[in-house]
Amino acid sequence: STDAGFDAAKMAANIDDMLSKGVDGLIVSAGPTETLPSSLAAIQAAGTPVVFVDRLWKNTNLTTPWNWVGAQNDVMGSEIGKEVAKHLTGKGEIVIIRGGPADNSIGIARTEAFTAAVSDSQNIKITIAPAFGGWAVDGGYKTMSDMLAKKSNIDAVFCENDSMCLGAQKAAADAGRSAKIVFAASDAGKDTLREMMRPGSNFIATAVNDSDQIGRVGFNHLMGMLAGGKLPNITPLDSR
Q1: What is the largest CA-CA distance in the chain?
Q2: DSSP 3-state of 202
Q3: pTM score, whole prediction
Q4: Rounded distance, CA 122 to CA 90, Å?
Q5: What does pLDDT average to in each consecutive run of 10 residues of the chain (240 residues)?
Q6: Is 112 left (phi over 0), alpha (psi -120 to 50) or beta?
Q7: 140: buried, middle or exposed (CB in 10 Å: 19+, 13-18, 0-12)?
Q8: Peptide bond into 101 cis (omega under 30)
Q9: Burial (CB count <10 Å: 0-12, 13-18, 19+), residue 170
Q10: Do the beta carbons of residue 18 and residue 69 sit within 8 Å?
Q11: Contacts of 59 (CB under 8 A, 6+ apart)
Q12: Angstrom distance (rounded) from CA 66 to CA 45
């Protein structure tokens, strides 16, 4: 097991090192990395089965056995968007807080689907925060604080993950504006579910992104491929 610490070059080096040791299979959790062509070429040349979890690299096109296991990010965004639009009864101002970076396919899928779901309501206005929240509570707090200073009216906030939205929720509370804003985000983490269960909570919607399930299914799929089993390349998991 290796950890590249969000460094794409180190991840590539780690994969090369694993392949040079003759591993039978790889499980790759790529974090923010969208693709590593040199690593794809090395995996292809070695003929090593690989499972990508959570993030599918662009231009995979491998002939060696491979599989992707992850959440349906577009479904998450769409279902949350429908819930927020229903809560707002078709009118209001929504702020979207993205995780980043700009080419992050997971965040893009969630935001585009959310936006499409609320766009049927002509009286809903969407503002995308210019700064990224970095997928963290502190980042969500700072980004929301900036947006509160810029906008006198915000009715709802959608974040690309729960952690940022918990931070944004706290920022609104600290600014004395919680009463008029609702929050929604993807992932359904335990802290978020506890918050949603709190009487009077203004966190109104989340969607399932079960990392435990993704990891278990990814492991089992690699074991299946090593045993000669045939799997579809793409395995989306339930994201209700």
Answers
A1: 60
A2: coil
A3: 0.91
A4: 7
A5: 94 97 96 92 97 93 95 96 95 97 93 94 94 97 98 97 98 96 96 96 96 96 96 93
A6: alpha
A7: buried
A8: yes
A9: middle
A10: no
A11: 35, 37, 40
A12: 13
